[in-house]
Amino acid sequence: MSLVLHKLFFWLFIAIVIFVVAVPILYLGYEGSIGRFSSPSRSFSYEVLSSIALTLVASIIAASIALIIGAPVAYYLARYRFHGIDFIEALIDLPTSVPHPLVGIAILVMMGPIGPLSPLLRVFGVENVSYTLLALILALLVVSAPIMIKSLASSFKSLDPQPEIAALTLGISRVKIFLLIVLPMSFRSILNSFAITLARSISEFGSIVIVAYYILTPPFQGVKPAPVLIWDLFESGGLASALPASATLFLLSLVVLFLIRVSERISR
Amino acid sequence: MKKSYILVLGTIILGFLIGVFTSPYIYTFHSPRQVTTYTQIVSGGLASQQKEVYVLEAATLKPMVDMLKNAMASHRYMVYDEAKGSVQLAREINDLGKRADLFITVDSEVVEKVLMPNGSASWYIVIATSSMVLVYSNASEDKLKKPLDMLARGDLRGFFEELLSGNYRIGLGNPDNVPQGYRTLIMLKLAGLMIWGDEGYYINKFNELQKAGKVVYTRDAAALVAQLQTGAIDASFTYLYEAMLYNLKYARLPRELDLSDLSLRDFYSKANYTTSSRVVIRGAPIEIVVTIPKTAVNRQAALSIIAYLLTDKGKEIMRKAGLTPLDNPVIRGSDRDLFG
Description:
The complex is a heterodimer. By secondary structure, chain A is mainly alpha-helical. Chain A has helices at residues 2-21, 23-33, 40-43, 46-79, 85-97, 100-111, 118-123, 133-157, 162-169, 174-185, 187-203, 208-211, 226-237, 239-266. By secondary structure, chain B is α/β, with parallel strands linked by helices. Helices cover 48% and strands 20% of the residues of chain B. A 6-stranded mixed β-sheet of chain B has the order 2-1-3-12-4-13, sandwiched between helices. A 3-stranded antiparallel β-sheet of chain B has the order 8-5-9. In chain B, strand 10 and strand 11 form a beta hairpin. In chain B, helix 9 (179-196) crosses helix 10. The termini of chain B are far apart. Classes of the chains: A mainly alpha, B alpha/beta. At the A-B interface, helix 1, helix 2, helix 6 and helix 13 of A face helix 1, helix 4, strand 7 and helix 11 of B.
């Protein structure tokens, strides 16, 4: 009896959290898909599908780059103590504490046609960075990389150090240990971090609305990222336009995040 | 055993309370027409005692509202404001029943085409005007020397040919959402009419430039300014008061094109723009309009603020914000909602 009650205690809190956190969004998805605002032609219009494709492609690229450049950083921060580590960690956290439109403006100020990095970009054939896929991915990278690094670092920290110590005593270098032992060992937490980072990228709005309101160059010419498109649809056509599109985005985000969780489970 | 009962009971009560207090926010659009939620009634009751006023204004009118806020503070009015794209704010009033004691925008069309058909407002007062100017930044001033010289000489044909030659990147707010954006397109149609007798002349060029990426839409005025000041775009057409607000350089256009002259209403209305949601917007003088939407809670205070805006002190505030206050404010619409 007491055991049941104790379980009930926690489940009540789970219910409250789900009610507050997920129910409004699920309800929105319901209204946009089969509820009062249902409109399959709007949910699956070319405009909506191409914008979701753009968001997914850009987010996956950004999350992958964040993983590649973030994993070594996370490992080093997790396993080493050095002077200035707090400072480095604060710098990495910086984008999470800045209003996101400022991240977009920062990219423009730095890499726009009169920014200090523009000569370098011109070498690679980028005349004007704004409204390019590059700008979109950069913005997503800036806002999501800190999340990737934080999440990876905490999982590396919780990893059992014994195999690494054993390898060190055999004279294997730290880089090799990182690549051949730590990475394979933490495959699951890498997938987990990837999912969180991807989710953050998919939902990003503030910074990309400045640097990539839509994309000027093929293959995504004229396509707006999904969060931007949905907000625009709301502005120009109210809930009847925005909800069917958001329902599709919710569904796809849910599928993507679910797939990652499942593959995480399978890899166990 | 007893302890756990108390815990469970406490949890149930806590969950119930959270539900009661969050559901009006979460499910406001359950009935889009019914706009007064429980919390609004509560806060509204308090508001009229404490003279709290909620002002929603077009983002570019923020400086004016800030000055108004300071002026009202001396009369013990607490003005809370939210500055955003005016179409977006109108949507939030319509669809989400957002509280707005006062709604100030730079386009009467937003009130007439978005708020009025939905029954969210029934009248408005035109209190001031402004004009469209060509804006550019320090970064693009040299680049734009040729068309600027032509404009200064009054060579309008040469100016538009050069500006739309593809040598310059031009930005404007998304015409479907931002009045500044569709006003630019209407102004180009008027220029085509004036110079060539063909309203499509410059619009067609403009559309081709857009396909080529030489014309870019931004989501709002703030994004436009960010693009302009970082050199990502070279020029834009916007309101005089906005140019002053952001310290942008600007060049004036002739009266026939700058949409500032109320006596040219007939000529301006020869051009129009159809949004993607099939709303036809007529060309009209730029009018700064104010209304009290149906979602207002503190009507009395809102009326007092409107009255204040019409006094000499109010007009001085508008002038400081770069607007041209009208000597004879115009009221349009019906008196249906005047008394709430």
